[in-house]
């Protein structure tokens, strides 16, 4: 008959083992065996005594009160015990061999008797990681005591054995104990520990007689916190995402009880959705989403943190140029000859763009210093022209330019280059006119011209009104002036003498009427 024992280490099959002892003497031998080799208290047992003597007298005696059924042969006895109810069970077999001059020999076997009672003193329902606990196993009653072996298993791994070298006494209920001390760890959560009881059947054979298991529950602080960005686990380096991308950050952490996860983001929630458990979603990445994102895992036993540096990459853009701290708006910029001029170029982009200047002077009397600053120490005509700033990073290029005009600055204002040695003659005389009088004279000439024009128009209208119409003449006299029209003759416009404007200024204005 086969026996099946379910245990934490799987299904263990036990086949009946016939245990025998052989006594060899001169001329013949005696063999005593039992089936099974170790018997559970109250179970049946079969004892067999066999000899090689051809004419033996066999005698097997047991403790008084032991009930058995015997069958015999010419050289063997077999006794069957329906139920064993004694802890000190011995089977002595005596053989007298008549064919060997009545030589007498005795062989005795002590049978191991046991029960299946095994007890585990369990630890607290919940263990805390990094604290020390003990598991105590009290084994079954076994006689002889030194036949019992108690083993602690962690899963299928043996972690501790226990046995005794003392045989003990059959009437003494002395049970073997095995106490296993350990420090609880994260890996102990849900771990099965098993106490296994075995009896030594001799010849290194062991028979499993009982087992008992306990499953641990361990609580521990959060740990091994990880962050993934778009389904890729972060390994500690900055993570680049493109401007406009949709980005999903997921935080996971070990911990028992389950950790509460909380995000901290540099945008303070702008265009960001945080959904449990530990998921942060950026819908449209911009520069405001760049920075350190931290996930904090918390439970009653502690805190763990993990962060990731998100870099929002973008090609250069919004490039601007300022001239002497005034931003250029697209029109030419005038500077005076001899001025010190500073051009500053700025551009957005990530990584920060590299700025490069192109200037029409090819660097003559010009200093270019990072980042994007071009300085003209003494502006001359060679510095006039188009200045271009090019912003570059790994993701693209952007350009901005400005047209610089170098002018000569007079006392009254800035005008284009001009020959100040030029001489002008006005009213037939030679005179030098300083540049500072040119603009006032020009304005005065224009005003005088406007006044003259107004006077001419007025007189013309007034004269026409007197020439036309019907008049009653009183004491009229004949007109002897040939320039005055007679009767219905038309009077022409009164001519104005030519205006003589020279050298950009008014020299003389003369109005004359024909008399």
In short:
By secondary structure, the chain is mainly beta. Strand 8 and strand 9 (76-81) form a beta hairpin.
Query: What is the overall pLDDT average?
Result: 82
Amount of helix:
under 10%
Bin the strand percentage.
over 45%
Give the CATH class of the largest domain.
Mainly Beta
Query: What is the overall number of helices?
Result: 1
Report how far the terminal alpha carbons are from each other.
163 Å
Architecture of the largest domain, according to CATH?
Sandwich
Number of strands: 42
Stretches where pLDDT is under 50 for at least 5 consecutive residues are 1-18, 411-435, 464-471, 496-515
Query: Cα-atom Rg, whole angstroms?
Result: 61 Å
The CATH homologous superfamily of the largest domain is termed Immunoglobulins
Which structural class best describes the helix and strand composition?
mainly beta
Largest sheet: 8 strands, mixed
Question: Which word captures the global form?
Answer: rod-shaped
- Total tally of structural domains: 5
CATH topology of the largest domain: Immunoglobulin-like
Please render the helix and strand layout as text.
Layout: E1 3-7, E2 10-14, E3 19-25, E4 28-35, E5 38-40, E6 45-51, E7 56-60, E8 69-72, E9 76-81, E10 89-97, E11 103-114, E12 119-121, E13 127-128, E14 132-138, E15 142-143, E16 148-154, E17 157-163, E18 177-183, E19 192-202, E20 205-215, E21 218-229, E22 232-233, E23 239-242, E24 247-256, E25 260-264, E26 272-275, E27 279-282, E28 291-299, E29 302-323, E30 326-327, E31 333-336, E32 341-350, E33 354-358, E34 366-369, E35 373-376, E36 385-393, E37 396-409, E38 414-415, E39 424-426, E40 429-431, H1 435-467, E41 500-502, E42 505-508
Parallel strand pairs: 5-11, 13-21, 23-29, 31-37
Antiparallel strand pairs: 1-2, 3-4, 4-6, 6-9, 7-10, 8-9, 10-11, 11-15, 12-14, 14-18, 16-17, 16-19, 19-20, 21-22, 21-24, 24-27, 25-28, 26-27, 28-29, 29-30, 29-32, 32-35, 33-36, 34-35, 36-37, 37-38, 39-40, 41-42
């Amino acid at each position: 008959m086969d026996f099946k024992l379910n245990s934490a280490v799987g299904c263990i099959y036990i086949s009946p083992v016939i245990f025998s002892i052989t006594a060899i003497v001169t001329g013949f031998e005696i063999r005593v065996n039992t089936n099974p080799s170790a018997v559970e208290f109250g179970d049946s047992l079969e004892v067999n005594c066999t000899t090689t003597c051809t004419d033996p007298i066999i005698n097997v005696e047991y403790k008084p009160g032991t009930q058995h059924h015997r069958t015999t042969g010419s050289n063997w006895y077999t006794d069957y015990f329906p139920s064993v109810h004694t802890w000190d069970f011995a089977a002595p077999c005596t053989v007298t061999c008549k064919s060997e001059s009545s030589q007498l020999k005795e062989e005795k076997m002590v049978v191991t008797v046991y029960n299946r009672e095994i007890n585990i003193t369990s630890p607290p329902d919940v263990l805390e990681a990094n604290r020390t606990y003990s598991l105590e196993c009290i084994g079954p009653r076994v006689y002889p005591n030194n036949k019992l072996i108690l083993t602690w298993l962690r899963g299928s791994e043996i972690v501790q054995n226990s046995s005794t070298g003392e045989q003990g006494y059959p009437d003494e209920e002395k049970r073997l104990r095995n106490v296993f001390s350990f420090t609880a760890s994260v890996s102990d959560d849900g771990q099965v520990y098993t106490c296994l009881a075995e009896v030594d059947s001799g010849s290194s054979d062991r028979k499993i007689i009982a087992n008992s298991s306990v499953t641990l529950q361990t609580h521990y602080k959060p740990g091994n916190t990880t962050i993934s960005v778009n389904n890729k686990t972060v390994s500690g380096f900055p993570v680049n995402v493109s401007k406009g991308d949709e980005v999903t950050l997921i935080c996971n952490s070990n911990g028992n009880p389950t950790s509460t996860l909380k995000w901290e983001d540099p945008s303070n929630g702008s265009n960001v959705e945080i959904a449990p458990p530990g998921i942060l979603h950026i819908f449209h990445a911009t520069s405001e989403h760049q920075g350190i994102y931290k996930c904090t895992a918390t439970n009653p036993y502690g805190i763990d943190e993990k962060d990731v540096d998100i870099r929002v990459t973008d090609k250069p853009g919004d490039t601007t140029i300022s001239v002497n701290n005034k931003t250029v708006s697209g029109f030419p910029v005038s500077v005076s000859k001899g001025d010190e001029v500073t051009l500053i170029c700025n551009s957005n982009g990530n990584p920060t763009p590299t700025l490069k200047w192109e200037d029409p002077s090819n660097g003559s009397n010009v200093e270019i210093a990072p980042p994007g600053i071009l300085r003209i120490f003494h502006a001359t005509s060679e510095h006039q022209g188009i200045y271009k700033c090019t912003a570059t990073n790994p993701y693209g290029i952007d350009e901005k330019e400005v047209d610089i005009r170098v002018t000569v600055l007079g006392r009254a204002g800035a005008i284009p280059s001009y020959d100040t040695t030029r001489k002008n003659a006005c009213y037939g005389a030679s005179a030098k006119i300083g540049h500072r009088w040119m603009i006032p004279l020009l304005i005065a000439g224009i005003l005088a011209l406007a006044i003259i024009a107004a006077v001419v128009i007025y007189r013309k209208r007034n004269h026409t009104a007197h020439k036309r119409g019907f008049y009653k003449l009183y004491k009229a006299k004949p007109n002897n002036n040939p320039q005055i029209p007679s009767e219905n003759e038309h009077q022409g416009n009164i001519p104005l003498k030519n205006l003589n404007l020279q050298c950009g200024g008014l020299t003389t204005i003369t109005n004359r009427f024909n008399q």
